[in-house]
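sry for the spam today, last one i promise. struct tokens for design, 93 residues
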């Protein structure tokens, strides 16, 4: 039997997308990447703010300890500075 010598069928499937589709895909991917970058920036900023908050809370604890040492366990109005002594506590004589 003789071998068949027919030409190979040319692949008619497209080899790439059209320019308009490529631009749209690139645009969507760029938008996604930009959003991811911004989310990363927000996460980094949040991390820095949480460290700052921790430092402020430590300072507040130190101030509370100093005020308690000086005035005892009292409530202080942070708007006026007025001290409200507990009913249980007796004044120093």
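last one done:
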């Amino acid at each position: 039997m003789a071998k068949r010598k027919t030409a190979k069928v040319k692949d008619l499937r497209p080899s790439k997308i059209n320019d308009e589709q490529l631009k749209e895909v690139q645009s969507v991917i760029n938008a996604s990447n930009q959003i991811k970058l911004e989310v990363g920036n927000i996460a980094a900023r949040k991390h820095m703010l949480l460290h700052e908050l921790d430092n402020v809370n430590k300072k507040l604890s130190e101030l509370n300890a100093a005020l308690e040492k000086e005035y005892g366990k009292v409530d202080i109005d942070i708007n006026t500075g007025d001290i409200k002594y507990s009913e249980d506590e007796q004044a120093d004589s």
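Strands lie at 74-76, 83-85. ok im logging off now
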